[in-house]
Design a protein that fits this description.
- This protein starts with 16 loop residues before the first helix and ends with a helix.
- The chain is mostly helical.
- It has helices spanning 17-25, 29-42, 46-58, 63-66.
Length: 67
Amino acid sequence: MNHKKLTRSNNRVIAGVCGGIAEYFGWNKTIVRLLYLLVSILSAAFPGILVYIILWIVMPSSTYGDL
């Protein structure tokens, strides 16, 4: 059985967090990035930035799985 892992994407704009989420769920990376930006702006930006930084630290890079 093949298990998917949530990892940061190599197709990255900043750290690959949104790209990794999109790859995990099979969604369009651009749509995920736009939705994340919209949610961050509507939440006064600070919580969105904080969540992104936490995900950046917690999510492993996809390069670890390729070794």
